[in-house]
Design goal:
The chain has one domain. It contains three helices and no strands. Helix 1 runs antiparallel to helix 3. The radius of gyration is 20 Å and the shape is flat. The mean pLDDT is 88.
């Protein structure tokens, strides 16, 4: 008996540009090609988290203001 799945599977969409940049920067730093501070090497991660936090905070704030 053959079963056909009706659920959609999107799978893995790949690596994001920020993750790729982080991997490249860490590799270059460890190999000695760049002499940046670790803050700048890991900046694609913390910049992404900061943007996500600001978006979530803004949406939450606007939604709470709209309920009043």
């Amino acid at each position: 008996m053959i079963r056909i799945s009706t659920t959609k599977s999107y799978g893995n969409r790949g690596i994001s540009i920020f993750s790729l940049l982080t991997i490249v920067f860490v590799t270059l730093r460890l190999l000695g090609y760049i002499d940046w501070s670790w803050w700048w090497v890991l900046s694609p991660l913390w910049i992404t988290f900061t943007i996500a936090f600001l978006i979530i905070f803004t949406v939450t704030y606007v939604s709470n203001k709209a309920e009043r």
